Amino acid sequence: MARKKRRRLNIFRLFLSLILLLVIAGGVTALGLVVISIKDLPAWSEEKLLSSASTSIYDQNGELVARVGEENRVPVDLKEIPQHVREAFLAIEDVRFYQHHGVDLRGIIRAAWTDITGGRIQEGGSTITQQLVKLSFLTPERTIKRKIQEVILAIITERRYTKDEILEMYLNKVYFGAGAYGIQSAAETYFDKPARDLTLSEGALLAGLIQAPSAYDPFVNPEAAKKRRDLVLDNMVKYNFITAEEAAQARAIPLEEMLKPGGKQQYPYPFFIDYVTEQLVNRYGTEQVFKGGLHVFTTLDPAIQEAAEKAMSDPRNYPASVRDSQGVLQPEGAAVVIDPHTGYIKAIVGGREHTHRLQWNRATMPPGRQPGSTFKPIIAYGPAVEYKGMAPASVIDDIPVKYGNYSPRNYDGRYRGLVTMRTAIASSINVVAVRVLMEHVGIASAIKFARGLGINLDPQTHGPSMALGGLREGVTPLQMAAAYGAFANQGIYLEPTAITRVEDASGNVLYEYQPKPVRAMKATTAYLITDMLKTVIERGTGTNARIGRPAAGKTGTSDQGKDLWFAGYTPELVGVVWIGYDKPRAMPQEFGGRYPAIIWRQIMSAALKDVPVHQFPRPEGIVTATVDGKSGLLPGPNTPPSDLVTDIFARGTVPTRVDNTHVLVEVCATTGLLPSQYCPERITRVMIKLPYSVPSYVQDYAQRVPTATCTLHTAPQEAIPPENQDQPAQPGEQPGEIIPPPGQQEQPGSDQGPVGLLREQINGPGWLSGPRNPRARE
Q1: Where does 71-258 sit in CATH, by number?
Q2: Rounded to whole angstroms, how far apart are CA atoms 720 and 724?
Q3: Which GO annotations describe the biological process of this protein (predicted)?
Q4: CA-CA distance, 427 to 429, in Å (whole number)?
Q5: Are 616 and 527 in contact (CB under 8 A)?
Q6: Catalytic residue ranges
Q7: pLDDT tens for residues 221-277?
Q8: Is 15 a residue whose pLDDT tops 80?
Q9: What is the rounded CA–CA span in Å between residue 488 and residue 492?
Q10: pTM of the predicted model, to two decimals?
Q11: By the number of CB atoms within 10 A of the CB, which of 20, 386, 408, 568 ranks highest?
Q12: Which neighbouring-strand residues pair with 397?
């Protein structure tokens, strides 16, 4: 049997077969990729192509101050963009834009060749349409699947929209760096002008940013930005968009002449803008605020806001400061300024520095802080005047008292005895405030009054310490400003607002502020409190807040100086300043009358520098009367001229009883005690007689009728040898001299002011027992 002839291997045929197999495999793979790409193609949405608009925020004058949103974007019509600016983008991004149908094979080949021969990437291969759909529908990942999807979506887009519509969408969507999306925002960010006013050189600079905004940032890398701009101009000449002469003129313009002064900056007035944004989100939701293109008109006064930011950021206005583990300067601070007659918030500063959007705003956001003595007019003196008919001349005895286990102390350790409420509030005497609350007003009435000023307190968790600002949840500077606003506004409380009107993108009004005034107290009450608070600034603890015009205010210092406050107002504005550590920490040598009062003075002086001086309006029903300054009653036959005090009252509250606390008392001329039958010389004095005794370290102790009888003088005795005679008294031990305990000696600057209404009953014996506060509140 003959053997079959073996066929020789055909190398050429084998090569062709392998090529065919590779082509088939590649085709199958490509087809598979296309199928997978189509299967996972993002859902078509016209809304994703169209650019969302940021919310525009305007100040009290209708001037645009900021835009907020997921992107700083303001859509603009293509016809508003100059022709030379459009051509700059075409020259560098897609010169055949008006010839291709979404994908440009010639452009891809040309870009690749340019990049290879040039040694670096100068032109992109994607068309403007491809870039648009990538920005609108796809992720930034670089995969074949994503590229196939990009091509498919580009072709779909080209079939649905005209070239001009696609170019307009692209220019309104693309990112230019510095937080600017779209050409309108970019023009404002870099050149402080609208897109319609862009020059050739400016347009070329913006067109060059698209490829790598951070690398070509003109504020950070001006030389790289200039080279990229010049490349765009060269391409415009190359593709006959402009002449060589026009390009040379555009290249000759220095960047510093084009860019806006100050460089790229954080949006202005950040704490105020943050607060407004928070209010908008709570009302309309995130989607509407950050994408809906709202127009928001606010109460912002740029001049006052700038003054507040300047004062709050000045390191000289704080105790020695350090940065905490988060890099935040401590102690921190906050300030609020409002118009009490409208409730309009003029300025908000929520910290010494603003580091990122919607950070914790200490001026408006809980948790609140302990207000110290700034709370006294709200919880003690205000309700005493409103509900109990008390007045600046009402008298309270500043002596040790105790309520259960609570024993209030004064910040300086002194007890002044009988003082008027005007003196007590000017000198920030703690015991008097607590006694007014507990013995005259009562917890329930005090909480009712505070509620009318926008501060809600739980009567089950608050007691006598709230007279000194001891609150469970604390208060914010904004709450305090609104509460003090009622005193400045003749007793009418207005809920503060930062927004006056909101419009949608089409100009339809969504919201308009309608004030809802609430009568929180009688106008006479507000005036009497205001008049007392004027004394605080004129000669009390708040003298650092003097601004050379009528002003009223109150200092506040919480336990151990953890919170420092000044709350004050003029007839035009209310301002509140707080200083403290974010994690409460003692500042034992500081008090509200120092740095907070100084900051308040700086802010208010700047805010009112061009405002005519006005007096606080005096309402009907305010009368003047002279009373006895140790009892608060009408002067009696024994009232000494030094105790006569003239002050103001609400009509109907002037006392009708005549003073009977000043009495004529016969005392020993030597010791000042009640005389014994052996005292050789007696004198008659006008003294104060009350149904209780006080410790000898109370400052007016010597003016009160003594309770002890003189023992210095006794029955005559036979001569005593010299060696048995009493030794002379040592200095400081003269008979009858009152020696206060250490730390309670009289200090300079005390104000023993006028007038009063005497509480006839006082806690009985035992006022020295029980725990004492580690440090008194101011």
Answers
A1: 1.10.3810.10
A2: 6
A3: cell wall organization; peptidoglycan biosynthetic process; proteolysis; regulation of cell shape; response to antibiotic
A4: 6
A5: yes
A6: 93, 373
A7: 899 999 999 999 999 999 999 999 999 999 999 998 999 876 655 678 989 998 998
A8: no
A9: 8
A10: 0.72
A11: 568
A12: 418
